[in-house]
Amino acid sequence: MRSVTVHIHGITPYSQSRQHDEPKLPKETPSDWEARTWREKCTTDDAGMIVIPAMAFKQALPVAARRLGDQIPGRGKSTYTKYFEADVICEGDAPLGVHKNAVAGITINANSDGVRGSGKRVKRTFPVIPAPWQTTARFTIFDDTITREVFERVFTAAGLSVGVGRFRPENGGLNGRFTAGRFDWD
User: Fold this and answer.
1) How far are the Cα atoms of 2, 82, 97 from residue 101, in angstroms, in the given order?
2) With contact defined as beta carbons under 8 Å apart, do 86 and 146 qualify?
3) How many CB atoms lie within 10 A of CB 28?
């Protein structure tokens, strides 16, 4: 078992789209509700500071490992994907140092049901942190099958081709790409 702290540099804007349960006010239209509550789409800590959820990084890693398809030496056709799924965790949310009340928004025409090409479009506003942004995230690797070199390669691929957040590369978007400034191994 080993741990690593990764210093992360965002190279494209980062946007969030967390579902929230903010109630509609009496006689409030859907567009008025959207204008009033769009900042609630941010994932925040208890102080209202925006964070990247630990699960965003956790889920990006096995996707990148699968795409790379690197085989484990001496284990036939076996790849690292299942080890990144089961044996790597991100220990906590990654702080961005921006309060949700200070974040800018972007308004887009989105599908009303969230399904691409499904029909009616509506205006939606999402929080956006412009690039460059930075944060740190700490990971624990429970299986020594994942070496330092393998983790760094997969993390780099996750940052460039998978990303985090709304409209990320994994889903055909442009946001949420990142690189590792450095890896501090324990």
Assistant:
1) 37, 39, 12
2) no
3) 14
pTM: 0.94
Q: What's the per-residue H, E or C state across the chain?
A: CEEEEEEEEECCCEECCCCCCCCCCCCCCHHHHHHHHHHHHCCECCCCEEEECHHHHHHHHHHHHHHHCCECCCCCCCECHHHHHHHEEECCCEEEEEEHHHCEEEEEEEECCCCCCCCCEEEEEEEEECCCCEEEEEEEECCCCCCHHHHHHHHHHHHHHHCCCCCCHHHCCCCCCEEEEEEEEC
Q: What does the pLDDT look like over 139-181, one tens digit per residue?
A: 999 999 999 999 999 999 999 999 999 999 999 999 999 999 9
8 Å CB contact between 80 and 65: yes
Q: Are 10 and 172 in contact (CB under 8 A)?
A: no
Q: Distance (Å, rounded) from C-alpha 180 to C-alpha 2?
A: 18
Q: Which residues contact 101 (CB under 8 A, 6 or more apart)?
A: 39, 48
Which residue do the tokens 């006010």 mark?
25
pLDDT of residue 79: 97
Mean pLDDT of 107-111: 91
